[in-house]
Amino acid sequence: FQLPYRPEIFAQDVSYPGVQLDKLSSSSPLKLKSQSNQTTPSSLQIRRIGEKKKMAVTMKQMSLIVSLFGVLSFILGVIAENKKPASGTPINGKGVVICKYPSDPTVALGYLSAAFLLACTVAGYKSLFISYKGRSVPNSVLFKSTSFSVFFNIALITSGLALSLLLWPTITEQLHLTRNVHRNLETSCPTAKTGLLGGGAFVSLDSCLFWLVALMLADNAREDHFDEADNRNGDENSYSRDVNLKIDA
Predict the structure, then answer these.
(1) pTM reported for the whole predicted model
(2) Which of 58, 135, 162, 177 is the S-S candidate for 203 at Cβ 3.0 to 4.6 Å?
(3) Whole-angstrom distance, CA of residue 205 vs CA of residue 71
């Protein structure tokens, strides 16, 4: 038993989900056409996504940066204090006294210590308010925590105090080295006050520690905020699900 061949039936388009059959004829084979409209990301988009992931900074990395700058400021300040000469050598001239100071890196080290302290302060401040893992919180959420507010203000105060203690003797020492000709014949060729650079170095280290404590408290406030937001969203979803079930019933 054999069915008669009717080309007008096979000449019609037969379509299936995602696949289209071309018109059949006795001389052309069966052809399949894909109707999938799925779009794939281009290589440029993939590269940009990868760059964003690489550029994302974690809280651990920021804490390491703050610690590095703070420790460098402390070390340079201590070295500057140890290298500072106690006084210069007076040389009598015609109506003047010329102070000759030994060569020392106190001024350069003092400015470097102040620069690293400033970098530590900027990094510590930014580390508290930038977004991590693509999620950020309003500043008001952080300052709701009393502990965070206290340590944040202490970190700012100690940073300003340390910067003053480092810059004051450094600038004074630079003035003594550059203005070494005195009309006071009884001058003893003094240098910057002893102990200020060392004290500024220790206060700089303290400010670094306070920034790290503030960062830890900010992390706790962020986690509490996100937990509350997730619980709130879960409660809303369960409530809407219950309403839908009641309506369907």
Answers:
(1) 0.69
(2) 162
(3) 6
